Each structure stands twice: as structure tokens, then as C-alpha cells.
């Protein structure tokens, strides 16, 4: 009896669609058979297998991105019931219906739920979010980090460039050049590395440029939205302190 009830139960979705980057968005409704333990990705896969709307009319399959399905890659970011999050960990049983799926509008829409996160990746390039090492020879074991520092640095390294914190931030939009919380936190991470700190001032100078740390309005939306629980506001506060120190140092050089 329970199995037959599950077989007849439907899950309703309202998906915001967009056929091309410059096309006008529209919504389309879908109903799919319920299965226990469904997540949003498995629901989208069901729509892809049988692309018909809630009236039974055939339509183009919904486009979205996913990869690891373990909340590690960050590819499946979208707005689900008004909240930016990962679709792979959004369980249907815990979502209010109809489940509304939208692309993250902080980024340009490529098609349907697929977005172009180039803005974030360019910001990571701008702040040099990597450890530069010259040469290809064997450098041997790297310097050790103190255990307390390693522990909090590891928390920052969990960033999966999903873009959720930028979507949640009211100061990241097409009218500003603010780089957003994730790149600022990555500056803190790489400046803490024993090798990476050689370029510490260079990264901090970038945060003093237009679109840098002064763009933060301290709304704290980012830390609440981060799916990995990264202490983004702590990173921003630390980098605000370090950039202030750098400004004073630069003044005394003049």
C-alpha cells in the first residue's frame, strides 16, 4: 500500500528558463514521480529523461551543471526556493513545494540554470590566489605550519568556488566591481602559507584597489549562505586589519 502511494505521489517544480544569454527568462512547470531520498539533481535528471511540462507537452530538457554530487565541486549552484545553495544536497523531502529553481543572477546566464562564473575566477586571478613557485626542480618538503594556524587555514581551503557567497552578497552585482567574499578569504589563506606570504603585500595591494575590500558592506549574508561553513566575515575582518596596516606602512615610506 505504501509503495503504491509513493508511486502516485508527484513532485512539482517551477523552473526559470532562458534559451540564450540575451533571451528573456520565462518559467516552466514540471511534475515528476516522487522517489524517496530524491535531491534536486536527481529530479532534474528525471525531467531530462522525460522532457514534458506539467500538462504533458514536450519541451527542451532543462540545462544545468553538476559534477561531483558530493558538495565538493560547487558546479551545481542555483537558487532553490529563493536561497542560493547546492542542488546536490537539496533534498526534495525537505523543500516546500512547488520547488522553485532559478539561476544565480549575480553571474551571466548561459542557458536555463547554467551560469558563467568567470567574474569570480577573474577575481581569484586578480588576487593571485595560488602559491607561486619558480622552477621545476625538486624543492623538497615545504615548511611546516603551526598546528593552530593549519587548523583554521584548512577551514578556508574548503572553498569550492561555488559562487553562493557572491550571490548572497548585496554588494556583488553588475553595478559594482566588488570582488566578493570568497576571493578575500583566499587572500587570507594564501597569505598565511609560509611560502605564499612572500607575496603577501602584493595581494593586499590588490584588496586596496577598486573593487577590493572597501566594497564590503558587512551584511554578513555570505557567512550564513556558505555551504561549507567558512568563516568569511572573520577573513574579511582580518584582511581589513592587514590592509590598514599596509596603508600606514606605505605612508611612512613616502
Structure commentary:
Strands 2-1-5-3-4 form a 5-stranded mixed sheet. It is elongated, with a radius of gyration of 22 Å. The chain is α+β, with helices and mostly antiparallel strands and 254 residues long. The protein has helices at residues 2-8, 40-49, 118-126, 147-156, 164-168, 181-192, 200-208, 221-225, 232-253, and strands at residues 10-17, 26-33, 77-80, 83-86, 99-102, 109-111, 114-115. The mean pLDDT is 93. The protein has 2 domains: 2-115, Beta-grasp domain (Ubiquitin-like (UB roll)), CATH 3.10.20.30; 118-253, Fumarate Reductase Iron-sulfur Protein, Chain B, domain 2, CATH 1.10.1060.10. InterPro entries: 2Fe-2S_ferredoxin-like_sf, 4Fe4S_Fe-S-bd, 4Fe4S_Fe_S_CS, Beta-grasp_dom_sf, Helical_ferredxn, SDH/FRD_Iron-Sulfur, Succ_DH/fum_Rdtase_Fe-S, Succ_DH/fum_Rdtase_N.
Amino acid at each position: 500500500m505504501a509503495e503504491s502511494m509513493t508511486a502516485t505521489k508527484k513532485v512539482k517544480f517551477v523552473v526559470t528558463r532562458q534559451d540564450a544569454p540575451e533571451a528573456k527568462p520565462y518559467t516552466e512547470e514540471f511534475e515528476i514521480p516522487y522517489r524517496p531520498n530524491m535531491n534536486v539533481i536527481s529530479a532534474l535528471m528525471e525531467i531530462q529523461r522525460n522532457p514534458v511540462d506539467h500538462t504533458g507537452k514536450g519541451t527542451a530538457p532543462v540545462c544545468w551543471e553538476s559534477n561531483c554530487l558530493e558538495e565538493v565541486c560547487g558546479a551545481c549552484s542555483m537558487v532553490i526556493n529563493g536561497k542560493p545553495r547546492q542542488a546536490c544536497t537539496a533534498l526534495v523531502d525537505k523543500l516546500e513545494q512547488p520547488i522553485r529553481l532559478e539561476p544565480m543572477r549575480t553571474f551571466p546566464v548561459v542557458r536555463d540554470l547554467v551560469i558563467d562564473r568567470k567574474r569570480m575566477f577573474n577575481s581569484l586571478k586578480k588576487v593571485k590566489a595560488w602559491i607561486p613557485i619558480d622552477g621545476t626542480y625538486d624543492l623538497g618538503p615545504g615548511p611546516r605550519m603551526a598546528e593552530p594556524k593549519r587548523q583554521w587555514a584548512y577551514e578556508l581551503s574548503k572553498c569550492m568556488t561555488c559562487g553562493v557567497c557572491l550571490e548572497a552578497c548585496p554588494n556583488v552585482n553588475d553595478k559594482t566591481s566588488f570582488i566578493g567574499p570568497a576571493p578575500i578569504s583566499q587572500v587570507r589563506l594564501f597569505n598565511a602559507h609560509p611560502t605564499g606570504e612572500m607575496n603577501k603585500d602584493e595581494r593586499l595591494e590588490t584588496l586596496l584597489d577598486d573593487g577590493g575590500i572597501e566594497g564590503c558592506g558587512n551584511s554578513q549574508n555570505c557567512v550564513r549562505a556558505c555551504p561549507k561553513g567558512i568563516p568569511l566575515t572573520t577573513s574579511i575582518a582580518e584582511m581589513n586589519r592587514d590592509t590598514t596596516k599596509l596603508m600606514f606602512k606605505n605612508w611612512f615610506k613616502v
